[in-house]
Write a structure and sequence with these properties.
This protein is mostly helical. It is built from three helices and two strands; from the N terminus they run H-E-H-E-H. The protein starts with 18 loop residues before the first helix and ends with a helix.
């Protein structure tokens, strides 16, 4: 079983649609005040660029792995340039 884009099983739940379909629901929640921010996690640089281009509300927060030996400067710069925490 797969969830989105080849990601293995989601605890047996069959997921339909894409991350973009889910994002549109989150945008509605944001507009209606049900959520205060929309975030993404473990997105690569190109995925974040795509999210910024495709969505009407860009991500507010990006949570990615970072430590002294793994610092993705491109992602950090992209976030800084687009006011993403």
């Amino acid at each position: 079983r797969e969830c989105w884009d080849g990601i293995p099983s989601c605890r047996g739940v069959k997921v339909e649609g894409s991350w973009f379909d889910s994002w549109q629901v989150l945008e509605d929640y944001y507009r209606n005040g049900r959520v205060k921010a929309i975030g993404i996690s473990n997105f690569h640089y190109d995925d974040i660029v795509e999210a910024i281009k495709l969505t009407s509300i860009k991500p507010h927060v990006v949570q990615n792995w970072m430590d002294p030996f793994h610092q993705d400067a491109r992602v950090r710069e992209l976030c800084r340039d687009n006011q993403i925490a």
